[in-house]
Specification:
By secondary structure, this protein is of the alpha/beta class. The protein has one domain. Helices cover about 50% and strands about 20% of the residues. It is built from 11 helices and 9 strands. The strands form 2 sheets. Strands 1-9-8-2-5-3-4 form a 7-stranded mixed sheet, sandwiched between helices. A two-stranded antiparallel ribbon has the order 6-7. Helix 8 links the parallel strand 3 and strand 4. Helix 3 crosses helix 4. The two termini are about 35 Å apart.
């Protein structure tokens, strides 16, 4: 079984390298087109977690199965469009950032940086979630992505190299997060993805009416370092990425309250842009123990 898994990991890494190699020859607009096409291919031909996505949509948005399928299909297309874009972001280096991205309330991030305590930048797997780091880097901001170690270490190495290639720092999540403390203390804008199942280490808060284990790291750092939180998301509208920021600065609150607040904020955003959210996550995988 272990050998079979190793072979699978090699195949996945080789496929990813080949995909990167061929996409590099495409212009950026063609890259987006093939990303959407690849999403459609997976949705219809290789339906990885398709049932999970449809189930999550139906349980969360209370829509019919036909409507859930429509949302899921668009979500597949939008997600893989974004993944393909990551591979070809260098093609945008000579394009003015204002032509491809629009920032709303960017001054909130600038003010948070000036406080000198680092910035806890919370976002979710919505729209151009990886594009955010590239856009901030283009604006002259030092960005540090928190990466969760992947089971496929070969693919994980390729992912880390991709971040370095586009000039973005990363920090691998550890049990004892000294590296994250160092990043914040050095003034970095540290990007956290706040919408994945956090297992037994998470805080259970309501997410679309159901208890979900949610990462508490941003709340803990907010309380201990008094570093401001920026709640941000990036959506694709009118042929532009729109990055929206909101300041959250309430370190006096309890950890559970802070986690609830940013989870509720992102739930409202997802309701507004359901077809740009990554519903394939097993978001409610960890169950709350009943005493």
């Amino acid at each position: 079984m272990k050998k079979k898994k190793q072979i699978q990991h090699i195949y996945e890494a080789v496929f990813l390298k080949l995909k990167i190699f061929f996409i590099k020859f495409l212009d950026f607009h063609t890259t987006r087109f093939f990303g959407k096409l690849f999403g459609l291919f997976l949705f219809y031909i290789v339906p990885v977690r398709k049932k999970t996505a449809i189930k999550n949509i139906r349980n969360s948005l209370k829509v019919s199965i036909s409507e859930a399928k429509k949302i899921a299909k668009k979500a597949y297309m939008n997600f893989f469009k974004g993944i393909f874009e990551i591979i070809n972001l260098e093609k945008l280096n000579k394009v003015r950032i204002s032509k491809i991205a629009e920032f709303n309330n960017f001054f909130l991030l600038e003010d948070a940086i000036k406080k000198g305590r680092g910035v806890i930048f919370c976002t979710i797997h919505l729209g151009g979630f990886y594009f955010i780091g590239y856009a901030l880097k283009r604006m002259g901001i030092t960005v540090n992505y928190i990466l969760k170690k992947q089971r496929n270490l070969k693919v994980f190495e390729i992912l880390k190299k991709r971040f370095l290639d586009i000039g973005i720092k990363y920090t691998v999540l550890q049990k004892v997060p000294k590296n994250i403390f160092r990043a914040l203390n050095s003034g970095d804008v540290v990007i956290f993805q706040c919408d994945q199942d956090a297992g037994k280490t998470g805080v259970f808060v309501d997410f679309f009416g159901r208890p979900a284990s949610t990462p508490q790291g941003p709340a803990l750092f907010h309380k201990s370092l008094k570093a401001p939180i920026i709640l941000a998301y990036c959506v694709y509208e009118n042929k532009k990425y729109k990055i929206n920021c909101k300041l959250y600065d309430n370190p006096e609150k309890k950890v559970e309250e802070i986690v609830f607040d940013y989870t509720k904020f992102f739930e409202d955003v997802i309701r507004k842009y359901p077809d740009q959210y990554f519903w394939l996550h097993k978001r409610w995988h960890t169950k709350k123990c009943q005493n």
